[in-house]
């Protein structure tokens, strides 16, 4: 039973005690009067000098108890009745008085039984039976008292009568026993009736209280309703205007970008569908331009989002000059979409070029001169599509394709891009099942110590064969990142590489090097994946190298540092891949704990064109920070010898070996040792 239920139960018992006290004290006067008169009749109504003094003592005791009980009742009526008090104490006093009365009667009969003549005995039995009968109802509120009263009044004298040598008294004794049982049943039934009556009373009181509460609440609700009706009556005159204003606000909030006040995605989609409907009816053409700003991320990162927001507002104003009102939307971030009704291919290109030129004009914000450009993709109705969503998607894809080929230019959707979309969709679908179908494999390219020509490590490279056709990693890896599969694929490569490295037949110190994408490194669960791969494969952490592209250091520096520290705490080796082609922050080299710098193949293959200066600077940096160096793209003996003389520690490239399956790596290693 919970605390609340116990509290309710305790309160109910207390209410029952209140009612019991009220009924017991309410009927006590009749009972006390009967007790006094009955004892007085028995003591003074029969001439029995032998026991008169003893009977007189019983009378005095009876008078004392009656007076005390009468005083207790008067005290209750005058001082306690109608007040909040603890009912247990008054009930205890009443019970003690009743028990004292019972004891006097029971003792009187038991002590004087054999000293009374037949007439006096019969009179005593009649009086006791009457008192017991009255008590069966008067004391009904208390089961204990009524049971005790009836039992002590009837049962002792009945037992004495049964054991009496006089036969007529034996019969009276048996009748007394029967009478006692009947009285006991009546008293218990009366007590049950009393309890049920109390429960019904409490329920009725509760219902009445609830009814009053509900009436009060109803009255309050009616009053509130009356006040509300008055307010409604007062506002009816301006209600239509308020509704229209609210409708306009809701429409604006749901269809407008709060920063630029241009249409948002939902609003533009609805508007474009409406424009397309008119265009179809008039048998005209329409162009959709998808605009993406070039260089805006650097503005946000370098100058802050407040400056970035002001730049977006200015760009929105400039783009809005090249189209009709509400024919432009902010699609999200630094992307905008423009609808050009009646535009042909040439018209759309001309407008796109003009819009791009407008964006390239310097923007001055808080004394900052900001230079931006834009890449724009175009889709034409009905040539390329006949729905708003399809045209926007095609313009979007065209923009991304154009940005990949040549940022800051304008492109029009064509069959090549269409085929590219279909091919990418097929690759997306294939990637989702590539692992379960066993289409991925890992090949390994050795990394050689320049000083002694020994094998230092082997780089793990993923390969994918889809529909019996190899797909290049630079094609499927970006797709995997887009659709969120890079974590699953990266974990698979990591596990496969660790298992292979733990089992390959080479010197024990030969490590395996695994590439890690930006998304993997930024994932909070990445270190857990590392621990599982090492534990399941049994590979020593010192033999695992992770290659991280330096471009990640331009993102969340604090998160990168935390992840790098967590990896290094496991004694895992970390390499900076493609060094010199990306961020190349010396502060990051000083702050973060790396082991190796990998010099990009672009510098190695252009040694004759002056790249040795960049390589020399890289070697100097590595020496200052105590990093090991690895040169990629070694294809000739001349490259190997020259880089070794310059001080490069390790070499990797086709001159030594192409990426090899695990079974061919062992054969290559045996030949290399010879």
The whole-number mean of residue pLDDT values reads 83
Q: What is the rounded distance between the termini?
A: 85 Å
Roughly how many Å is the radius of gyration?
52 Å
Helices, by number, come to 23
Hey, roughly how much beta strand do the residues contain? 5-15%
Structural class of the secondary elements? alpha/beta
Strand sequence of the main sheet, in spatial order? Answer: 8-9-11-12-13-14-15-16
Uncertain spans: 1-15
What composes the largest sheet? Answer: 8 strands, mixed, barrel
* Estimated helix fraction: 55-70%
How would you describe the shape? elongated
Please provide the count of β strands. 16
Explain how this protein is built.
- The chain is α/β, with parallel strands linked by helices and 674 residues long.
- The chain has 23 helices and 16 strands.
- It has helices at residues 3-26, 28-44, 52-80, 88-112, 118-138, 143-162, 167-255, 265-282, 296-303, 305-320, 345-360, 388-405, 415-434, 473-482, 486-503, 518-521, 526-537, 557-568, 586-591, 601-604, 611-625, 637-646, 662-673, and strands at 286-294, 328-332, 335-341, 363-365, 368-370, 373-381, 410-412, 440-449, 455-466, 469-471, 511-516, 544-549, 573-579, 596-599, 628-631, 650-651.
- It has an eight-stranded mixed β-barrel, surrounded by six helices. Strands 2-3-1-6-7 form a five-stranded mixed sheet. Strands 4-5 form a two-stranded antiparallel ribbon.
- Helix 5 (118-138) packs antiparallel against helix 6, helix 5 (118-138) runs parallel beside helix 7 and helix 15 (486-503) packs parallel to helix 17.
- The longest helix has 89 residues, at 167-255.
């Amino acid at each position: 039973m919970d605390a609340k239920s116990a509290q309710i139960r305790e309160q109910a018992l207390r209410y029952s005690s209140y009612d019991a006290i009220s009924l017991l004290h309410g009927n006590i006067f009749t009972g006390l009067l009967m007790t006094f008169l009955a004892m007085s009749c028995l003591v003074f109504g029969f001439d029995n000098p032998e026991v008169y003094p003893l009977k007189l003592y019983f009378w005095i005791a009876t008078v004392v108890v009656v007076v005390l009980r009468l005083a207790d009742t008067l005290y209750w009526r005058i001082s306690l009745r109608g007040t909040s008090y603890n009912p247990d104490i008054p009930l205890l006093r009443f019970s003690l008085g009743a028990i004292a009365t019972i004891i006097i009667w029971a003792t009187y009969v038991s002590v004087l039984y054999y000293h009374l003549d037949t007439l006096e005995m019969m009179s005593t039995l009649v009086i006791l039976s009457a008192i017991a009968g009255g008590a069966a109802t008067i004391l009904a509120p208390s089961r204990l008292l009524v049971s005790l009263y009836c039992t002590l009044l009837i049962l002792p004298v009945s037992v004495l009568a049964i054991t009496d040598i006089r036969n007529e008294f034996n019969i009276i004794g048996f009748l007394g026993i029967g009478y006692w049982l009947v009285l006991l049943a009546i008293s218990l039934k009366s007590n049950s009736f009393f309890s049920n009556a109390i429960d019904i009373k409490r329920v009725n009181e509760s219902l009445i209280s609830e009814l009053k509460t509900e009436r009060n609440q109803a009255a309050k609700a009616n009053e509130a309703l009356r006040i509300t009706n008055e307010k409604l009556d007062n506002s009816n005159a301006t209600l239509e205007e308020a509704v229209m204003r609210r409708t306009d606000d809701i429409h604006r909030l749901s269809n407008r970008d709060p920063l630029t006040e241009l249409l948002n995605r939902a609003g533009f989609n609805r508007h474009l569908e409406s424009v397309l409907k008119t265009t179809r009816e008039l048998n005209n053409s329409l162009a959709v331009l998808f605009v993406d700003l070039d260089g805006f991320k650097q503005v946000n990162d370098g100058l802050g989002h407040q400056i970035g927001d002001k730049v977006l507002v200015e760009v929105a104003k400039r783009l809005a000059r090249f189209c009709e009102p509400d024919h432009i939307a902010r699609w999200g971030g630094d992307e905008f979409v423009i609808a050009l009704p009646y535009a042909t291919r040439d018209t759309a290109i001309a407008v796109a070029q003009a819009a791009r030129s407008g964006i390239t004009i310097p923007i001055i914000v808080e004394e900052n001169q900001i230079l931006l450009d834009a890449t724009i993709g175009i889709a034409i109705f009905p040539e390329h599509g006949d729905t708003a969503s399809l045209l926007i998607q095609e313009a979007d894809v065209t923009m991304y394709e154009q940005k990949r080929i040549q940022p800051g230019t304008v492109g029009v959707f064509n069959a090549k891009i269409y085929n590219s979309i279909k091919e990418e969709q097929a690759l997306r679908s294939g990637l989702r099942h590539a692992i379960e179908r066993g289409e991925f494999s890992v090949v390994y390219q050795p990394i050689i110590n320049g000083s002694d020509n020994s094998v230092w490590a082997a780089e793990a490279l993923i390969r994918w064969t889809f529909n019996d056709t190899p797909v290049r990693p630079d094609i499927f890896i970006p797709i995997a990142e887009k659709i969120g599969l890079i974590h699953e694929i990266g974990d698979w490569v990591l596990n496969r590489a660790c298992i292979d490295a733990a089992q390959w037949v080479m010197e024990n110190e030969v490590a395996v090097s695994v590439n890690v994408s930006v998304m993997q490194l930024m994932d909070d669960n990445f270190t857990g994946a590392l621990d599982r791969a090492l534990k399941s494969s049994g590979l020593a952490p010192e033999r695992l190298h992770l290659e991280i592209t330096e471009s990640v250091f331009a993102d969340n520096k604090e998160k990168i540092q935390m992840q790098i520290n967590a990896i290094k705490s496991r004694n895992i080796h970390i390499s900076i891949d493609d060094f010199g082609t990306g961020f190349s922050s010396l502060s990051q080299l000083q702050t973060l704990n790396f082991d190796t710098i990998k010099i990009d193949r672009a510098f190695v293959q252009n040694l004759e064109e002056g790249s040795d200066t960049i390589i020399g600077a890289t070697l100097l940096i590595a020496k200052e920070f105590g990093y090991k160096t690895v040169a990629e793209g070694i294809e000739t003996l001349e490259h190997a010898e020259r880089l070794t003389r310059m001080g490069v520690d390790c070499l990797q490239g086709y001159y030594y070996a192409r990426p090899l399956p695990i079974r061919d790596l062992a054969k290559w290693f045996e030949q290399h040792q010879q």
